[in-house]
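Chain A, query sequence.
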Amino acid sequence: MNRVVPAQAPHSNEPQPASAASPTLHMNSEPTYEGGCTCRSVRYRMTGRPLFVHCCHCRWCQRETGTAFALNAMIEATRIAVLHGEVEVIDTPSHSGKGQRISRCPTCRIAVWSNYGGADAIRFVRVGTLDEPDRLPPDIHIFTASKQPWVVLPVGTPAVAEYYKASELWPKESLERRSALLARPKAP
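Chain A, predicted structure.
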């Protein structure tokens, strides 16, 4: 099912690259990250550090992106504001069987984020659509059992053959934010 969604108002403890040392700060001192699609019809702002950043090497992500992996910053949907334009939501199958809802620019078709398994509360923002993607390196490499053999994983970044338990790797603040999110009543 395809539908257009109008614009709406509303991490890791590891060292960040040098460009993350002076992030754009929101009025409440949280870092902000802006991004958008290639044609600039869709622009968004992400407020606050992501819960966690995945570099996924599964075959499904390889197929969806047309490349070796997908780099996704997981963050609460309420921390994303569409600044300009609309996204088109495309429902696609996923390996889990729960599906994926990909939000794309209706003009240039670039995917800016996804929601997995019907969980609309957390978005998986495509890091490559950020204006400064180097500010959010991966916190973990997942599904490395199916990574391309020529991809060399960096020393010091966790890597797992398939998936992992968030409770074992996520920073305390991210776990607390996720718990608060899961405790909210679901909309009818």
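The domain at 2-6+24-148+156-181 is CATH 3.90.1590.10 (glutathione-dependent formaldehyde- activating enzyme (gfa)). Residues 109 and 124 are 17 Å apart (CA to CA).
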